[in-house]
Each structure stands twice: as structure tokens, then as C-alpha cells.
Amino acid sequence: MNEAIRQVTHVQNIRYDKATERLYIIDQTLLPNEEKEIELRTVEEMIEAIKMLRIRGAPAIGICAGYCMYALARDIDAKDNEAFYRKLQIDGELLGAARPTAVNLRWAVGEMLDAAKAHLKDDRAELLEALYRKAVDIHEDDIAKCTAISEYGLSLLKDGDGVLTHCNAGPLATSRYGTGQGPFLLAAERGIHIRVFADETRPLLQGARLTSYELQRAGVDVTLICDNMASMVMKNGWVQACFVGCDRIAANGDFANKIGTSGVAILAKHYGIPVYTLGPTSTIDMNCPDGAHIPIELRDGDEIKNLWYEKPMALPEVKCFNPSFDVTDHELLTGIVTEKGICYPPFTESLAALFKDKK
Ligand SMILES: CSC[C@H]1O[C@H](OP(=O)(O)O)[C@H](O)[C@@H]1O
């Protein structure tokens, strides 16, 4: 494999060093200007890193949460495993509340607590080893899922296609290859030419700072556009599909993704362009009946007014509305690409079929 592509697809966005028992992440708020690892030691540092998007992207947040729960468990001083479990639950509640929309965060915390509960009769060392194995399983499982998602996504494209994407759903947001952008990296590995139009994605610019950074380094033909240029790109006939990630998929196929995604889907519907969301089944919340029930994170207005300006705008008093996500109605969606295959409407049935064997 081309080394430049490998450095992108196999990025170490989250790294648990078992020899030193230390957890590291790449601080994504510094990208693309600086690629710097930071260590996460305390629950406060972990929550801050998730809240401030130093680690971000639904699957990556879930993977990080797995290692965080293991690292926190190692620091728990408890007279017996029942007391240990109660303390780990408290840490899990704090961590799980760091960001409300991406279901992967609470899913991973729950998986780790279930693993702890299953080993309460073991001695502490065995319990901790089981937790470490579970964190590694979550990570390795995501690598396998994203690889499969990227294969299914690539099956929808042909050489020379143009695709518009929004926000960042590449390796930095996941584990390997990614979801929304995974097919583009797989295509690059195989010499398939896909032309990608990446929305810069205001206000935190995940598309400009991360997607164009990843794709350009991998040699993918990527064009960075402002969010308000998507309509013209579609009208010009430059894209044959839209691929986006997801943070939570409801049981009827409505899904939450970065703010602006629903606008992309509405534009695509107008121009007759198919829209796919790509994500692992851990992002599907079958307990959430529709998009109206997905909690949407509201963020600080300074991210709009001041974050990327040479100097803060002289608008200290102006009100801001800064939802981090919006919900795309399932009627606007062509398909949902998961590691188990591509789901098509009616999504209530096709999504339920993914879980029919779940005990
Ligand atoms: C592969 S999930 C990526 C998903 O997460 C992003 O949100 P954020 O950057 O706030 O974590 C965005 O919604 C992406 O589509």
C-alpha cells in the first residue's frame, strides 16, 4: 500500500500504550497546522477533550470512551468489586454526558460497564484485564466495521464519479478508513478516481481542517468549498452522490449529523442526486423512534463569532444559535451504508432486520 495513504488510513488518532498504561489522542483542534498527541489521565481531562472536540466523530468518541473507562477503572480504590463497580458507574455517567448526540459515547460506556459487571466475581487484576480487552475489542471492531462500510460505500461509485461530503467522517473521526469518507480512501488505494467536494462545514470547519487535510495527504482529488457553494456544485452536475457520516440514526431512518447535513440532503433531492449516510450499527439507536427524539447539542456562540476571525468580531452582544447537529428526514435519504450492508427504504424494516439476530 502507498505509504502516504497508509499514514492517513491508519492514523493513530487514539493510542493506548499498555506498557506505560497511558492514553493518548491526537488533539484535533490543532489540525491541520499541528499534529500533536496529548495524554488523557483524569475524567476531567477526558470530558474536556470530548466537549472541546480534541477527540471527535461518533465512532472515535466511542473508542476513546472505552479506553477512558479502562484507565479510570485502574485508578479506582475500592475495598471490593461491588464498591469498585459503583465508582466506575459514576465515572461512566460523567463521561457519557460529555456530548449528548453521538450515541456511540453512551453505547461504549455501557459496553464497558457490562464487561465489568460480568467479571465482578474475578479478582481485581482479572477484572481490569477483562476491561482492557473490551476496550481493545471496541477499537478493533470499529476498524473491521469501517473497512466493511468503506467497501459497501465504494460499491456505489464508479471511476470518475464526483461526490459531495459534509463535515469529517474519515479515519480521524473513527478508527481506520472512516465512514463517510472511507470509500474515497479505499478508492485511492485501488487507483479509482473519485472527485470529492468537501464542504468546509461552519462553524468548526471539520471539512476544511480535517477532511481536505486527510484526503489531500492521501492523494484524493479533493476540492474544498464553502457550505453555501454546495448548490452550485450540484447544479453544475459535478457530483453523482452525496456521502455523509452520522452521529445517531433513529429507527425510522431519520439521522443526526453535523449541522448543515439536512440542507445538503434537501439540495440533493432538488437536483435528483442520491444521498447516503454511512456509519456502523453502533450509531443506530433502535430505541429512538424518529429524529424528533434525538438530542441536539447546542454549543457556544463564540464558535460562530470569534473562533476563526483575525480578531474577535465587534459583536459582543449579538445573539447566536449554534446547534452542532441537525436531523435529516429519512424521506431525503437514498440509503444507509453499514458494515452489514446497505439499507434501503422502508428504513423501519431494513434497520430492524440488521438486529433480528441480536439476543
Ligand atoms: C464518523 S462520525 C463523524 C460525524 O461526527 C461529526 O461531528 P463532530 O465533529 O461534532 O464530532 C460529524 O457529525 C460527522 O459526520
Bound molecules: ligand LNRAV4D5
User: What name goes with the CATH superfamily of the largest domain?
Assistant: Translation initiation factor eif-2b, domain 2
Q: Per CATH, which architecture of the largest domain?
A: 3-Layer(aba) Sandwich
Report, as a whole number of angstroms, the end-to-end distance. 39 Å
CATH topology of the largest domain: Rossmann fold
Radius of gyration: 20 Å
Instruction: Provide the CATH top-level class of the largest domain.
Output: Alpha Beta
Estimate the strand proportion. 15-25%
Cα shape: globular
Number of discrete domains: 2
The secondary-structure element order is HEEEHHHHHEHEHEHEEEHEEHEEEH
Which strand order do you get reading across the main beta sheet?
A: 6-5-4-7-10-13-14
Look at the structure and give the mean pLDDT: 96
